[in-house]
Amino acid sequence: MNFHVVNHGIQVQHVDLIGVSSSSVFLIGDTHNICLSSIFDTPPESLIIGPFVPLTVE
């Protein structure tokens, strides 16, 4: 897949995160490459699909 993005100026004042999934990317800004891969070698009965993991506020 080829994905072309034209970036312009960005200003981020505030970000609220309620939760993240077990495999996620949160990115603000520029990057040259993002390479994603996944290997799953556990048996299907051990897979746990549940809600997001809440972030604690300290």
Give keywords:
little secondary structure, 58 residues, 0% helix, Spore gernimation protein GerPD
Folded structure, characterized:
This is Spore gernimation protein GerPD. The protein is mostly loops. Helix content is 0%, strand content 7%. The chain is built from no helices and two strands. It has strands spanning 19-20, 53-54. A two-stranded antiparallel ribbon has the order 1-2. It is flat, with a radius of gyration of 16 Å. The mean pLDDT is 75.
Largest sheet: 2 strands, antiparallel
Structural shape: flat
Radius of gyration from the CA trace?
Answer: 16 Å
Global structural class? little secondary structure
Helix content: under 10%
Order of helices and strands: EE
> Got a strand count?
2
Number of helices: 0
Give the termini distance in whole angstroms: 40 Å
Q: Can you lay out the helices and strands and say which pair or pack?
A:
Elements: E1 19-20, E2 53-54
In short:
By secondary structure, this protein is largely without helices or strands. It has strands spanning 19-20, 53-54.
